[in-house]
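Worked example 3. Consider a protein that binds copper (II) ion.
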Amino acid sequence: MITRHYVCSKLFAATLAVAATLAAPVWAKTVKVEMTVKEVEVQVDNKGTKQNMWTYDGTIPGPLVRVTEGDVVDFTLTNDAANKNSHSMDFHAAIVDVLDEFAEIKPGDTKKFTFEAKYPGVFIYHCGAAAMVEHIARGMYGVIIVDPKEGYSKAFPKPDREYVLVQGDLYREGTSVDDLLDGKNWVGSLINGRVFKYDPVHDPQATQTLQAKPGERVRFYYVNANVNNPVALHPIAGIWDRVYDHGNPRNVSEGVQTFTIPPASGAIFDLIPPADRPTNNAIVDHAMTRALRGAISVLMTNDEADPTLGRTDKLIVR
Ligand SMILES: [Cu+2]
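Given these inputs, the predicted complex is written out as structure tokens:
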């Protein structure tokens, strides 16, 4: 009976799959994603300084979304009734209508839309409500990874660890839209929401680092959420083994020292530290203004590396 039931289910599933080809590839699944915009005080450095920021789900960056190429994202945005401003969601992984799916909603409202993730890569998402510069500068951004449907290959090897790093700007609280556009009152660079978040070398109050074991392939999904400036990403004391521009496995470069990420874009960076001894790398925006004001993250490589970091639910180290 169990077998027969199983066969019937398989036939039923096959029929569904054939029907599904009309709308989407057979491997596709629908992934539900829900976020709530929260205008809240958030800690922006390792000292504990708090600032009024605008966020997806209360964190900078917002929650990591990860799907596979061909999946349909079924997205719901809620603008918390306690907020004062309209907000929206702009997924760079979506091909839709800016005036429809990406339209802003008022506090207390909810909006749903779906899109198919057609290209593999690492994409930013951000708020596009007016004035967009303020919504991004106050922290309304995050990352969606679209894994390639082919999976891993010789050209796109499976990594041992994966870290998501998002670089953004920190402006003095209350900076006007005009001053944001002019870059005035800029005070530092945020990495995953805090200045020097993973850099105990430049900030003794930093308690977290990125970790790996010697010889591991460490994959960084790096997204630039700066409002105006590119990121010049370099792994001090290393060379990027591979860089996948936009995170697409087809856009590969090898042996890269410094790679430019434009505003509102991202790329995948693979680093393989030496296998025969403990080492450290500084993952840095090599533009010195931003490096020395927050945009440095230390990767510590040794045999004692925390086995949970850079894996499963710890791609963004909070
Ligand atoms: Cu917003």
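Take a moment to read the result before moving on. The pocket of copper (II) ion is lined by residues 54, 87, 127, 129, 135, 140 (CB under 6 Å). The domain at 30-147 is CATH 2.60.40.420 (Immunoglobulin-like).
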